[in-house]
Specification:
The chain folds into three domains: about 5-65, no CATH class; about 70-220, Immunoglobulin-like (Sandwich), CATH 2.60.40.10; about 225-330, Immunoglobulin-like (Sandwich), CATH 2.60.40. It is about 5% helix and about 50% strand. The chain contains one helix and 25 strands. The strands form six sheets. Strands 17, 18, 20, 21, 22 and 25 form a six-stranded antiparallel sheet that branches. The protein has a five-stranded antiparallel sheet with strand order 6-8-12-10-11, with no helix packed on it. Strands 1, 2, 3 and 4 form a four-stranded antiparallel sheet that branches. It is rod-shaped, with a radius of gyration of 36 Å. Bound molecules: calcium ion (3 copies). One calcium ion binds next to loops.
């Protein structure tokens, strides 16, 4: 008698079985495993011959419904501390549903972390609605209270932004940590904790290795530039000396020193012509290069009545620019 015991296993889901299998083949790296609600059936078959006649007998079929596993990861997408200037800054995170069923997550951001040199002010958590990886004011949705994501499918990723504002009185090179946490809406707990009937198709939802929650930490570092103006004068009298008498030429130099880190914008240096002196036409200069007195294409304007004005514009920190001009003592 010849007896074989082949083993037959079928995988079906509430969806079309073929579609499910083809998805699994196309994406073998799925973190979430078999989709929650999948029915795993197996039936043993015995075939044999009896008096030269082939016969087959099946066992009863065992059906196991795959429960929902709740799992999540959250990572910072910022490659290092985010440079922060006065005003608003954005931190970027990626949330991934590592479970095998649909799940939404409650998000909690915290800017008050022990060891911070300063604590930023939390403005909001936003969802990258248009999927471009960049926070777009007025386009990307701000999560309302309680700050909860949409329901994510298994393996679905979501880019989230934490929007913060620098506090008043911030100074250069102050470091500040920020955390963002995600908690599965169905529940969190020790791995293995079960929420009866709260999974797909009324199955159980079981907390996976993450505990159903994840926290990502990122950092800000302030880059604040500041400007100091230092003014000096050199006198040259008509006699080759340095006394201040009628006819003495006074050369004023104004140094604009930008310190700290980052840049400042729209820097303009102005100065009035002192009482008792007259502007010496054609003497305005920036870093030793002459500027015309007229309001024209260059950075400078000068006149006896209005004084001098030089537009330096955007200036990087750790640079110094010198504006100079002459007046004549009356
Ligand atoms: Ca769920
Ligand atoms: Ca966006
Ligand atoms: Ca000019």
């Amino acid at each position: 008698m010849n007896m074989k015991m082949p083993f037959k296993q079928t995988v079906e889901t509430a969806l079309v079985a073929v579609a499910c299998v083809s998805v699994m083949i196309a994406a073998p790296v799925l973190a979430s495993g078999v989709t929650a609600g999948t029915l795993i059936k197996n039936t043993a078959i015995a075939s044999y011959e009896e008096g030269g006649v082939e016969r087959q007998v099946n066992s009863n079929t065992i059906t196991v419904r795959v429960d929902e596993l709740i799992d999540v990861t959250l990572t910072s997408l910022d490659t290092g501390p985010v440079g922060a200037r006065p005003g608003d800054s954005v931190l970027t995170y990626e949330l991934t549903n590592q479970g095998n069923g649909p799940e939404a997550y409650r998000m909690i951001a915290n800017t008050v972390i022990g060891g911070n040199a300063i604590d930023f002010v939390l403005r909001a958590i936003a969802n990258d609605s248009n999927g471009n990886g960049i926070y777009d004011e007025g386009v990307d949705e701000i999560l309302g209270q309680p700050q909860t994501t949409a329901i994510l499918a298994p393996d679905q990723r979501l880019t989230l932004f934490v929007l913060v504002t620098a506090p008043d009185g911030v100074s250069d090179q102050q470091a500040s940590a920020v955390t963002l946490s995600a908690e599965a809406v169905t529940g969190t707990g020790a791995p293995g904790t079960a929420f009866a009937g709260e999974g797909v198709d009324g199955g159980d939802a079981i907390v996976g290795p993450s505990g159903g929650q994840a926290t990502a930490r990122s950092a800000l570092i302030t880059g604040i530039a500041s400007v100091a103006l230092v003014k000096s004068v050199v006198l040259s009298d008509p006699f080759g000396g340095t006394s201040a008498v009628p006819g003495t030429i006074a050369t004023f130099t104004i140094e604009a020193r930008v310190s700290g880190t980052g840049t400042i914008d729209n820097l303009v240096v102005t100065d009035a012509i002192p009482e008792g002196t007259t502007y010496a036409p054609g003497t305005l200069a920036l870093d030793g290069v002459g500027l015309s007195d007229a309001a024209d294409g260059d950075a400078g304007v000068a006149s006896d009545t209005s004084g001098i004005s030089v537009t330096l514009g955007t200036v990087a920190a750790q640079t110094t620019q010198r504006v100079s001009f002459n007046v004549v003592v009356e």
